[in-house]
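Let us work through a complete example step by step.
Step 1: write down the sequence.
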Amino acid sequence: MESLAAVAILKEHFRDLKIRFVNVVDLFRLMPESEHPHGLSDRDFDSLFTVDKPVIFNFHSYASLIHKLTYRRKNHENIHVRGYKEKGNINTPLELAIINQIDRFDLAIDVIDRVPRLRSVGAHVKEWLKGQIIESVNYAHAEGIDKEEIRNWKWPGRDGERADQQYRQQRRPDPRSQQRLIFA
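Step 2: predict the structure and record it as tokens.
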């Protein structure tokens, strides 16, 4: 869900950004077909993950495993894996994700840092995302649970608008910041 939430945030702030979301259910599909019966051919792998675009892989285990499974692929140098770092204790779900940098905000920051055209225009969104991390951790420490808009997050509606209008109104950066994005 954090990966999908990151996609929604990115689409809200960078409407023209093209994002491909691939849900990998069988990790052996990442291997070449010559190495495992479930493996993908190079052509099929490249058609899914491209040969030259940044790939952010959010994995709920050790990142090194994904690197081991994909090291022979053409775009391996552009595959960046977010995974658990064995940090955390008794935390809220989002707080644990934040500590391990696999949350929606860190994933969106990672995309801004790795997509060349967003590096120069995404600074205000990046700062807003960092603020959301701080605010979310502070809320979790004070209340013992994640904020309602995090707990009850839903994919935006068909028309591209957020299902939860209150979240959108409270969480948008200052419109003047968006003007700086347009005129940068």
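Step 3: interpret the result. The chain is about 50% helix and 5% strand.
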